[in-house]
Amino acid sequence: MKHVVHFVLILSTVLSGIAAQIDFVFQPAKYNAITLDTSSLPSPVEAPNTDAFIQLEDVNMHYQVYGENKPPLILIHGNGGSVKSLREAAQYLANDYTVYLPESRCHGRSSDPGVITYELMAKDFKQFIDALGLNKPVIMGHSDGAINAIQLAADYPDVPGAIIACGANSNPDTFKPYFPFGVWVKNIFQKDKLNDLMLTLPDFTEDYLAKITCPTYVVSGQYDIMWLTDTVYLHEAIKGSDIAVVRCADHSSYMSQNGKRAYVLATDWLKAKGLL
């Protein structure tokens, strides 16, 4: 019986997701469909001015910093990523912010304490912010990094000045079916706790998301790996948040694969909110 209920829930999600794609085509204003214009950009900062480690409670965290003497902005990479993932975005954002690129536990050159959850990563980033004395940083995350931003803002509402969550899902059941199937197959041949993370978490309920009080921008690509209904769900559950769906974009084409578009996405919203 449990499996039947699970199947019905997945089928319902798929059908509503398909309906949302059709709805997106005919009612783009409902999703705040946007196109990112990269025709006019500042010159990128070429290299980080800091490449270091900081010892937290459970993790020796590797991070880089681009720019200086500006308000803080933290860029958080996705599952399996590193400081390289959002480097181009950091290079452009360093014109307006001091940009911090930390590597999550079990990623890059940061240490691996053996266990990883979004709750633990949120704790790590809270300690990172406290250790460096950052005041109300903007937190912009991609994929798992977006989930980290949401988790951090819910668990520690007074910490972020604002969050930009790009490509977050609220629950593994809201992925389009091809994505978890691919992760599941990969896990058969090479078991990995990072794959397990995507297949089992997060589980963001409306009550949990209601804890977020900072300005929030919920973003996805038109052809992202989760259904647009989930992007709408996150937006509606996070009171006062803004939503955008990037036209003709997939999960990474406006973030880790294109730092120029990530820069425009962030700065356009931050200016509109009076935060830049």
Textual characterization of the structure:
This protein is an alpha/beta fold and 276 residues long. It has a single domain (2-272), classed as Alpha/Beta hydrolase fold, catalytic domain (Rossmann fold, 3-Layer(aba) Sandwich), CATH 3.40.50.1820. It is 39% helix and 17% strand. It is built from 9 helices and 9 strands. It has helices at residues 2-26, 87-93, 118-132, 144-155, 178-189, 193-200, 206-209, 228-237, 259-272, and strands spanning 33-34, 50-55, 60-66, 72-76, 98-102, 138-142, 162-166, 216-221, 242-246. A 9-stranded mixed sheet has the order 1-9-8-7-6-4-5-3-2. Helix 2 (87-93) links the parallel strand 4 (72-76) and strand 5 (98-102). Helix 2 (87-93) crosses helix 9 and helix 3 crosses helix 4 (144-155). The longest helix is centred in the first third of the chain and has 25 residues, at 2-26. It is globular and about 55 Å long. The protein starts with a helix and ends with a helix.
Descriptive key words:
single chain, Rossmann fold, 9-stranded mixed sheet, globular
Overall radius of gyration: 18 Å
Q: What is the CATH H-level superfamily?
A: Alpha/Beta hydrolase fold, catalytic domain
Going by CATH, the architecture would be 3-Layer(aba) Sandwich
CATH topology heading = Rossmann fold
Please give the share of residues in helix: 25-40%
Q: What is the strand content?
A: 15-25%
* First-to-last CA distance: 52 Å
Quaternary state reads single chain
Broad structural category: alpha/beta
Tell me the overall shape: globular
Biggest sheet features: 9 strands, mixed
| Low confidence ranges | none
Tally of separate helices: 9
What is the N-to-C succession of helices and strands? Answer: HEEEEHEHEHEHHHEHEH
Number of extended strands: 9
Q: Strands of the largest sheet, in order across it?
A: 1-9-8-7-6-4-5-3-2
